[in-house]
Structure formats: C-alpha cells, structure tokens
Amino acid sequence: MPWPVLVFDIETVPDMAGWRRLHVLSPDLDDAALFENWRAQRAEQGQSDFMPLYLQRVLCISCVFRNADGLRVHSFVDRDGHSEARVVQSFFQVIDKHAPQLVSWNGSGFDLPVLHYRGLMHGVVADKYWDLGDDDRDFKWNNYISRYHMRHLDLMDLLARYNPRNNAPMDALARLCGFAGKLGMDGSQVWAQYLAGQTEDIRRYCETDVMNTYLLYCRFQKMRGGLTEAEYRQEAAFVRHNLQTLSDLEPHWQEYLQAWLPD
After folding, report:
1. According to the model, what pLDDT value does residue 25 have?
2. Which of 24, 33, 61, 146 is deepest in the core (most CB within 10 A)?
3. CA 52, 53, 58, 63 torsion-angle sign
4. How far is CA 150 from CA 5, 154, 232, in A?
5. Could you tell me which of 238, 233, 242 has the C-alpha nearest to residue 263?
6. Please, what are the domains in the chain?
7. What is the per-residue pLDDT across 43-100, written as a single tens digit (0 to 9) for each?
8. Among candidates 257, 252, 253, 251, which has minimal Cα distance to 236?
C-alpha cells in the first residue's frame, strides 16, 4: 500500500457573510434568520436549500494520516469563526510537506471544489497540490487534479466507474463492510449543531467519517491487490489498537469501536 496516505473529509456551514457581500440585505438579520429566509424562498420555488459550493464555509477538515511511522487522526477546526483561512492553509501545507496520496469519498464532487474556492478567496498557497508537472515531472503523469490519476483517489467516484448514477453513500458502504458508519449526526444536521455551539461534536462526527473512509480504502487496497489478506487484517488490528488508545481521551472512539463489527 502506498505511503504516506492522507484521508480527508470536510464539514461546512453556509457562508452568510459571503451571502451578505453578494446581496444588499438588512443588517438586522442574524445568520440563522437570514438562512431561514433564503431557505423559505428556495422552498417556494421548489429548489434545494443547499448553498452553492463557493458559499460553503469550511468549519472542519478531519484527516487520517498513515505513513511508516504510524497512524494519526487530526482535525483542523475553525473554532472562533474567523480562522477558515488558517484551516484551509494548514491542510494544503500537509500536502506540500508530505506529497501523500489523497483519499476521499466524493472529494472530487464536494470537498476539493470547496477547498479550491475558499483557498482562492483567502489567498492560500498550495504549490504541490496544483503541480501538473512544472516543478516535479512525475506530477505530469500522476497529479492531484486529474480525475483518472491515483494521487487523489475519490473512492466513491472510482467505485461507481465515474458514473454518478452508480454513486453509493459512504455510510451504507461502511456499514455493509462491517465498519461503524456515521455516528452522532449526518451532514444535514451540521448547521443546526453549529448554531447551537456544538463545534466539537461536529469535529468528532467528521473524524469518525474520515475513519470510515480510511477503512474503506484499506478494503479497496485488499480488493485491488495492494494488501494481502494477512496485511489487511494486520492493518485493521493496528487501527483498532490506535483507536483504543484514542478512546481513553475521547469517547467517540469508544463508540466507534463498539459499532465496528469483528472481521
């Protein structure tokens, strides 16, 4: 299995400050009221209440980083409402430093376009990520941008054979494979949890999502011959051991372990 590997997932909330900048609006409305007004208007028109990607503010980026030294779970979180630029820049700095294989579930359809737009807005620098062979010739033939290269592996896109009609939800695939699946909430609840001040709960939810993706990636590596059966079982046991250690610090990992079926 190629190392280092960086599996990532993001959680976002509507960028109501950006919405105000694009529209002439009453300053008397707070974010929650403004969003509810917009959602009601969209409902009347029979349209989705999902904000366009360029108006998705990045709240949290959770990562599983696996290399020869071990496995680490880490989240970059905007806890004060003013640190989005730092969060996005920190993520791309990890890519610049390690040039890992990126792994996501629907990262091509959501996570990365959001990070592109928000990075552009904040003046983020991401040299290695955008390298198409100008600095490193190897990146001409295998880079993060091409849909069909493996330097960024969007598992959902690949398993669906690049056909959106075949896409499967990560939660369903994870649970069908015996992993824990989503815990605590789902993406539709993030905005309400954010308004309630539950940023840490959102961070924990994002971390369990990214762990599901890492385990699906390991299962995929076994399917494609990147891991033997013995190596796959060894890696699963290694992950369990690491999560047991983390569960002493944060209870969501204990919940995750309890929901993860024995291999």
Report:
1. 64
2. 61
3. positive
4. 11, 8, 20
5. 233
6. 5-259 (3.30.420.10)
7. 888 888 889 999 999 999 999 999 999 999 999 999 999 999 999 999 999 999 999 9
8. 257
